[in-house]
Amino acid sequence: AAAAKKRSPAPVEQGFSMEPGIGFTAGPNTFLMALTAPYAFDRHFSLGPRLEIGVADNRVLVAPSANARYAFDLTGIDDDLLRRLRPYLQGGFGIAYVKKDRPGGDDDGVGGLIDLGFGMEYPLNTQVSLGSGMLFHIVPGSPAGETFYFSWEMLSARFRF
Length: 161
Prior knowledge:
Blueprint: E1 15-26, E2 30-36, E3 39-40, E4 45-56, E5 59-71, H1 80-84, E6 86-100, E7 107-123, E8 128-138, E9 148-160
Antiparallel strand pairs: 1-2, 1-3, 1-9, 2-4, 3-4, 4-5, 5-6, 6-7, 7-8, 8-9
């Protein structure tokens, strides 16, 4: 008789989580600190606030938004490592504040924000996941001359309650 195959723990299917992360932005180039606090409606769909703060010597970026995430289920894959991966698509809208220090005076402004992206999570257990995600941000209104920026949250940790 074949031994029963060990199944990996699945993330909690419903509830709140907190997801801090670090990385960088490009266009403006900054060190990124991000915090997302989504509510998972089921195993696939979550919705919640996100805050990105980017800092550099001569610029600051603050971008609060509301983001939705759809995670794909890979439980049909035979390999245990790949089965645990949770790729996702995400998108949202919000506002972006950009401040640039320039010779002769600062330049700053606020504009709308539309973001679209993707990422991946790897659950360590039912309460904690590690992840990485990328977002492409369109910034209508061009605060401080910015119309687009890219953010890569290189490492995040999601804690489920």
